[in-house]
Amino acid sequence: MRRVFLKSVPALQYRCFHTRFVQKQQSTNMKYPLDKPDEEWRKELDPEQYRVIRKKGTELPGAGKFTNAFPEKGVFVCAACKELLYKADTKFESHCGWPAFYENLPGKVNRIEDDSFGMQRTEVVCSNCGGHLGHIFKGEGYPVPTNERHCINSVSLDFHKEETNNK
Predict the structure, then answer these.
(1) For 32, which DSSP code?
(2) Mean pLDDT of the region 122-147
(3) Which residue, among 156, 139, 161, 157, has the nearest Cα to 148 in the 3D structure?
């Protein structure tokens, strides 16, 4: 009976597991150009954005608005600070449940080694505000030029149809 109950609430299981252990992740002491107090971020971001971007959470697989969106032109930006991050033509189908990109715009993300959950990964954060975007995985065999998959939370992104040159 218990097994049936647990299978009926996978989203709750995932959210509880992830939230419980995410607080154990090492925080970095890096400074970013856009530095705001936590209270200000709470006011500007909706609760899910705040949980993912500021508290290093993860949205549920397949739940994001950009998971199955493949625009030909434009740019994905940080949902928190609007920093340009990824060109639309670097997004590819990975079937992983989150938007996947094979490369970021130069200098727009920082890579941080992350050994949480007993695995070696590379966290990717916005270089302007330090917001958590997702993780980078290498050597998975996707037919992309960099042999990398930037697995990014949709809630960490916004999309602009036209690239802008203001950043």
Answers:
(1) -
(2) 96
(3) 139
Is 126 assigned a catalytic role?
Answer: no
**What distance lies between CA 105 and its chain's CA centroid?**
15
Instruction: Name the active-site residue from 78, 126, 129, 151.
Output: 151
Q: What percent of the chain has pLDDT over 90?
A: 67
C-alpha angle with apex 162: 161 to 164, nearest 5 degrees?
Answer: 135
Q: Which domains does the chain have, with CATH numbers?
A: 2-160 (2.170.150.20)
Give the integer Cα–Cα distance in Å for 45 and 28. 21
Taking the C-alpha atoms of residue 34 and residue 154, their distance in angstroms, rounded to an integer, is: 21
Q: Rounded CA gap, 125 and 111, in Å?
A: 7
What's the burial of 7, exposed, middle or buried (CB within 10 Å: 0-12/13-18/19+)?
A: exposed
> How would you list the strands of the sheet with 132-138, edge to edge?
91-92, 100-101, 148-152, 132-138, 121-126, 109-114
Residues 38 and 13: their CA atoms lie apart, in Å, by 27
User: Residue 130 in contact with residue 78, Cβ under 8 Å?
Assistant: no
pTM, rounded to two decimals: 0.80
List, in order, residues 6 or more apart from 149 with CB less than 8 Å away.
Answer: 94, 96, 100, 101, 102, 136, 137, 138, 140, 142
Query: Which token pair is 43?
Result: 């006011």
